[in-house]
Amino acid sequence: MPRVYILGINAHHAGASACLIRDGELIAAAEEERFRRIKYWAGFPRLAIAFCLAEAGITPYELDHVGISRNPNANLLKKVAFALARRPSASMIRQRLANAMQVRNPKAALCEAFELDPKRLRARFHNIEHHRAHMASAFFVSPFPEAAILSVDGMGDFVSTMWGIGRGTQLDVTGEINFPHSLGFVYTAASQWLGFPKYGDEGKVMGLAPYGRPAYLEEFRKIVRVQRDGTFELDLDYFVHHAAGASMTFDEGSPEIEAMYSNKFIDTFGEARRPDAPLTEKHQDVAASLQAMLEEAEFALVRRLQRETGQSALCMAGGVALNSAFNGKILPDTPFTDIYIQPAANDAGTALGVCYYIYHHVLGRPRRYVMTAAYTGPRYRDDEIAQALDRRGLAYDRLDGAGLARRAAQIVAGGDVLGWFQGRMEWGPRALGNRSIIADPRRADMKDILNARIKHREPFRPFAPSVLLEAVGDYFDQTYPDPFMVKVYHVLPEQRAQIPAVTHVDGTGRLQTVDRDANPRYWALIAAFRDLTGVPVVLNTSFNENEPIVCTPDEAIECFLRTRMDALAIEDFLVQK
Ligand SMILES: [Fe+2]
User: pLDDT at position 394, please?
Assistant: First the structure.
């Protein structure tokens, strides 16, 4: 049989990205922000596509299918009905139309980006509805033959929430909640009010929530009304996004969002916090209440889905599926006994979803690929790395794998901060041991050291632990593997003093379990650290300084030199300051 090449793209939407599969095998996937060096870059992902094609060794003319994770024709009747009933502003309508024109014709965009002759392209082009792409991204690369699927985010193709069931190569949608009712937008609006206005800032608010008490849960229950059937409705008086349009500036840069909360929101909670103003107990309590409300609404959705499908496995995607605090509660607190969340659960992941939606659901080809590791991005050869180091006149040692793990573990155990750059770059927002900064989790002051020297993050935000898979039960209250750092578990009370730098204020940690087969080099580093210290855990934070995670050796070296990192391991090359 001839080979089938499928390119999936997320374009003209936050987190532009590309993914390429060959006969169902994932060849490459990456976010455009890593190449452009602008966070959540939105536009047409030309560089990510070029990378995917190069990894596959093909030209665009050899692609059989190309899909984009938007379908402007989806829910047209509902959009019209909404426009008639609500009379959205003219600028909102103009913006929507312009965006729809762009996503309607991915063929033209591809031809323009790569200066192609459209007549020579043999690929079939597909518009895949946004939330179907999310759902496909979670289910088709999961290990489950059958599963319930839930996608929750801000909004895509007029839908905020979609659920259904996956069986083999088929994905059936059984329900959805439409714009403007969106849990993602509630979280975004409250985050804006709390003084975190940037796209993607919701994760900071999730980190703030454990400092507060849910004192405003009753107020939030008026804003988000959970229904008897497990769905939810918003009281739109607290918002302006349905009228003003949740306006985002999309193309050629970081997405920017206008304020979504209304005067009634301000009447209820008080004046919004300015981003540079101090955080008070009240802000912490509002964050805690918001998180509690999100969990209440999501539990209702998840439990409904379990009742409706009778499935024991759950696959989740959408931006809200990155709420690791909630995700960690699903297995203990619902009838589901298995869970899968793909590392790029946010919009970037829809590029992957498009590929597998086409391969399985459209073409009916059998499933065989399971995503067990997130390492789908670029990797670099030793001669490229040596040249990059030589260009800056940096002296280095060259070690073998075991020697590097031992030396690196000594550096970390000695209290120094290590840049760790290995193999292929991660897919999704988390660094998972290939573009990571590693430090000693036993030192209570390590969080402040990292913030002062490298990361400059808000002091309330936690750092995450990477733990050997075989030791997870010795340190955490759950043992279900989480290779993608998408769930928060409780650190066992007797171990909290052992790993204070990665234990959050509420005694939890957003862990990564490290499997020897999935990442042998990272496993070897943590195992060497365990041999030295008795602790099979390291602190893992992304390799960057207020920028997208580094992609190339040059970017890693520049970050190393610019910040007060002590050592840098790039493949087998070790540099120490
Ligand atoms: Fe989305």
Answer: 97
Quote the pLDDT of residue 251: 60
Q: Separation of 232 CA from ligand 1 center, angstroms?
A: 18
Q: How far is the CA of 442 from the centre of ligand 1 (A)?
A: 37
Sequence-ordered list of residues with C-beta below 8 angstroms from that of 267, at least 6 positions apart, any chain: none
CA of 159 to the centre of ligand 1 (A): 9
Opening angle at CA 19, ends 14 and 21, nearest 5:
160
CA distances from 20 to 50, 55, 56, 134 (A): 10, 9, 8, 16
Determine the Cα–Cα distance for residues 320 and 318; give it in Å rounded to an integer. Answer: 5
CA of 347 to the centre of ligand 1 (A): 4
For every residue of 25-73, DSSP letters joined together read EEEEEEEHHHHHTSTT-BS--HHHHHHHHHHHT--GGG-SEEEES--TT
**Residue located via tokens 């909004």:** 155
* Ligand 1 geometric centre to CA of 36 (Å): 21
CA distance linking residue 354 with residue 64, whole number of Å? 13
Would you place residue 387 in the very low, low, confident or very high pLDDT band (cuts 50, 70, 90)? Answer: very high
Q: What tokens appear for 260 in the block?
A: 């979504």
Ligand 1 centroid distance, CA of 130 (Å) = 6
Residue ranges with strand state E in 305-417: 313-317, 338-341, 397-398
The span from the CA of 219 to the CA of 290, in Å, is 10
Cα 340-345-348 angle, rounded to 5 deg = 145
d(CA 17, CA 32): 5
Whose tokens are 């995670």? That residue is 549
- The tally of CA atoms less than 13 A away on the side-chain side of residue 29 is 32
What separation in Å is there between the alpha carbon of 318 and the centre of ligand 1?
5
Give the mean model confidence (pLDDT) for residues 56-80: 90
DSSP states of 403-447: HHHHHHHHHHHTT--EEEE-SSPBSSSS--SSEEEEE-TT-TTHH
Examine the pLDDT at 252 and tell me if it is beyond 70: no
Q: Among all chains, which residue has been given the structure tokens 């009228």?
A: 243
The single residue listed with the structure tokens 């990292």 is 450
Q: What is the DSSP letter of 155?
A: E
Residue tagged 């087969």 (tokens): 517
Distance CA 436, CA 422 (A): 9
pLDDT digits (tens, 9 = 90+) for 138-183: 999 999 999 999 999 999 999 999 999 999 999 999 999 999 999 9
Closest listed residue to residue 13, CA positions, set 52, 51, 40 = 40
Distance of CA 363 to CAs 29, 131, 158, 357, Å?
A: 21, 19, 26, 9
pLDDT-derived band at 79 (thresholds 50, 70, 90) equals confident
Residue 244 has a pLDDT of 63
C-alpha closest to that of 514 among 479, 469, 472, 481: 469
Distance CA(379)–CA(568), nearest Å, equals 16
How far does residue 134's CA lie from ligand 1's centre (Å)?
7
Q: How far is the CA of 69 from the centre of ligand 1 (A)?
A: 9
Query: Does the model's pTM come out above 0.85?
Result: yes
Is the CB of residue 9 less than 8 Å from the CB of residue 68?
Answer: yes
Is residue 253 within 8 A of residue 41, CB to CB? The reply is: yes
Question: Quick one: pLDDT at residue 245?
Answer: 54
